[in-house]
Amino acid sequence: MKIPKRTRKILEKISNQKNLLRKLGFRTDTKPVYKSPQGLNTNIIEEISRQKAEPEWMLTLRKKALEIFFKKPLPLWGGDLSKINFDTLHYYIKPQDKIKTKWENVPKKIKETFDKLGIPQAERKFLAGTGAQFESEMIYHSLQKELKGKGVIFESTDTALKKYPKIFAEYFGKVVPVTDNKFAALNSAVWSGGSFIYVPKNTHVNLPLQTYFRINAERMGQFERTLIIADEGSSVHYIEGCSAPIYSTDSLHAAVVEIIVKKNARVQYTTIQNWSSNVYNLVTKRAFVYENAEMLWLDCNIGSRLTMKYPAIFLLGENAKGEIQSLAFAKENQHQDTGAKIFHSSSNTSSKIVAKSISKNNGRNSYRGLLKVSKGAKNTVSHVSCNALLVDENSRSDTYPTMKVEEESATVAHEATVSKISEEQLFYLMSRGLSEDEAVSMIVNGFATQIIKQLPMEYALELNRLIELEMTGRHER
Length: 477
Fold this sequence. Notes:
By secondary structure, the chain is an alpha/beta fold.
């Protein structure tokens, strides 16, 4: 039977996509410059700070954060964290002596890793700036000369601490304080790497900036710290990608992201996460948004053993806008506990949350959301939409929405749906000449289209391909 033209085009698009991320499970045999012993104590904190030649105030902050981390209990809600053994992790691995600005100067083994992931090609084709983090350090960073001339700063966070100490100290730890939660405290104690971005007033970065994070070593903890400041009237789009090889032991990724979006500015932060199934991904991401400014989180989560991530937006100025769109895919032995938090603290603010999840082969997805409208935040408008797709009978989806509305003039709406792939859908597509795998993949990709279509084309193709590989069980990880 003849396949309709539109269906054929979709299949061709899937099958012809670049497969840069197909073999993310490979491992690289490298010899780091320094590797901390397993476990965590004050001596290790001091050695991390010494290796980085940091100012005294940062070492003081790290020690304070370590004390808080030890005192705070593990959260009892969300996913199961009881199997994390903090004493077996390496908290700092330095892969090379210093950051490189020319790709050819990156050590051969590390360069080969990112070559396989397509990072240099992506930079040449469609990025305004690129960073690459391997283990605990940024090993490469670059920015277009034109943007440097306009005063745009795009550096590793470690470099920014030394080159821009005044602006760094003004904003570091102000959006996500050391005391915020156990894993934010851990990050503050052992943070290393990440990106620092400052966009001057009325400056627009028209092409995305990207950083790719790679965990390579066994029993590794990666704790990057990203700080973005968009000054008045500016705009920037930042993209991060993540991956790791599979080991029999667990690794931990506990990042912190802080974003300041000033008056009339706009920031988009896009994540395409594809951690291996032995990684605990526990991340704190938060943005402060001021008058007439706009913040968009676009969060795509595939892989990891457990992800607990809830991007947050604080709407602090009149007419501020916030939007969080997320896509999560969970399969066997995976739990994606994801969601969104938006706080309306000023009048005439608006927000939108769109959360989509796909569960397969006993995979579990949980949406955990918080929407708060403070008293006096007049004429607030917000809409929350949660949609879950169960691919089989054994998968699970949970929704835990919390809404605290203290202002009578607010307009708040919430909707949630859970659906399964029906026999009728499969029968129709298979009657048009598709195999069952192809039919299921097409339904799942259609479900995810609302999120995927907002990505730059190259990333949309990659995410489509990742979903197709997960659905057919042919993902080499």
